[in-house]
Specification:
With 334 residues, this protein is an alpha/beta fold. 44% of the residues lie in helices and 13% in strands. It has 13 helices and 10 strands. The protein has helices at 8-12, 20-32, 41-48, 56-61, 84-92, 96-107, 124-146, 150-178, 255-258, 260-268, 275-282, 286-298, 317-324; strands at residues 2-5, 15-16, 184-187, 190-193, 200-203, 210-214, 231-235, 273-274, 302-307, 310-315. The strands form 3 sheets. Strands 3-4-1-5 form a 4-stranded mixed β-sheet. Strands 2-6-7 form a 3-stranded parallel β-sheet. A hairpin with a 2-residue loop joins strand 3 and strand 4. Helix 2 (20-32) crosses helix 7 (124-146) and helix 11 (275-282) crosses helix 12.
Length: 334
């Protein structure tokens, strides 16, 4: 078990961020073990066909047998949404001593894989070369495996943040962590993370708590070392929909009346959804969704209601009737 002791000031400084470097490193677990989650098998099959020229031995060695990842490779985001290059620049500056320590800690009690043996060299130059080689390899992997899908991933992560922020506003820390994952427990000012390999207790002491929703995390993932600031990567909501084919609509039905984008949008709004979630599912920009929602709302085909900090849209009774006129033609397909 790992525990974070959070005072009043720490809860006041609980915040969210998106980390492309974290997602890149966590995705390696899925490549390493296809049985970890079936949700990402479509992504995994696609990526395996594109990384043939990369040094996969070195790449896979970054994830230990226990699935731990060296802390130096996942620096704390310094802004809400840093770029991959900004975060990688931080990794490139990590000292050789820190590289040695974190690699050995992540792989313990196992010995380092052969691809990482330079980390045990007495001279710092060998460790620096290894660090730089890892950074360059991760940059190429990001460009091939993650960057093409990053916009959709980020929309999903931001939709999760919207939901979590509302949970915090409505019910405080207890409600925030209640449905985040079964391994998390909030009790008397302490966040307990069960079923961890290591065991330590971290006093936040005014440093707050950083929450990082993740596409590839299958369970909560705090830093390996207790000296790191309180940070928690957790599985994002809605991952099951990420690799689904965008919804389509039969253009012989609603499209001639509304146009294809609005017809697709109307068929999607069987359940209340926020703009950012609609944009993610349709794989378009939130601004484009907002323009169509304004038209559909003005014509009475959708309703809207505020839910905390977000506005939820749903088909109106009139919209339901319009969609139901041709039920065999106006089905949104996965």
């Amino acid at each position: 078990m790992i525990s974070f002791v959070l005072g009043v000031e720490d809860l006041a400084d609980t915040r969210f961020a998106v980390s492309p470097v974290h997602e890149t490193l966590l995705s390696l677990r899925v490549l390493q073990d296809p049985g970890l989650t079936v949700l990402h098998l479509p992504w995994r099959r696609s990526v395996l066909g594109r990384i043939g020229t990369l040094d996969t031995e070195l790449l896979m060695s970054l994830v230990a047998r226990r699935r731990t990842i060296p802390d130096f490779l996942t620096p704390q985001p310094t802004s809400f949404a840093p770029t991959f290059e900004e975060q990688l620049a931080v990794v490139r500056q990590v000292s050789p001593a820190r590289v040695r320590h974190d690699l050995l800690t992540a792989h313990a009690p196992d010995p380092l894989p052969a691809a990482l043996q330079d980390a045990t060299a007495a001279d710092d130059a060998s460790v620096v070369r290894l660090r730089d080689a890892v950074c360059e390899l991760l940059r190429h992997f990001w460009e091939v495996a993650i960057e093409p899908e990053w916009r959709q991933m980020r929309l999903l992560l931001e939709a999760d943040m919207t939901y979590r922020a509302r949970q915090l506003a409505v019910g405080g820390a207890r409600l925030l962590f209640a449905d985040m994952h079964p391994n998390l427990r909030w009790h008397n000012g302490v966040l307990h993370i069960d079923k961890m390999i290591s065991r330590h207790r971290v006093d936040a002491s005014g440093r707050g708590l950083l929450l990082l929703p993740s596409v590839f995390a299958h369970k909560p993932a705090p830093p390996v070392g207790p000296e790191e600031p309180p940070r928690l990567v957790y599985p994002s909501r809605g991952v099951a929909t990420l690799w689904a084919t965008p919804p389509t609509v039969d253009t012989t039905a609603l499209a001639p009346l509304l146009g294809v984008p609005r017809a697709r949008l109307l068929t999607l709004l069987e359940e209340p959804l926020a703009t950012v979630e609609i944009a993610r599912r349709l794989r378009v920009t939130p601004s484009a969704v907002s323009q169509h929602l304004r038209v559909l709302h003005a014509t009475g085909l959708v309703t809207r209601a505020r839910d905390g900090r977000q506005v939820l849209y749903r088909r109106s009774h009139l919209g339901d009737q319009l969609v139901d006129l041709n039920p065999s033609q106006n089905v949104v397909t996965p």
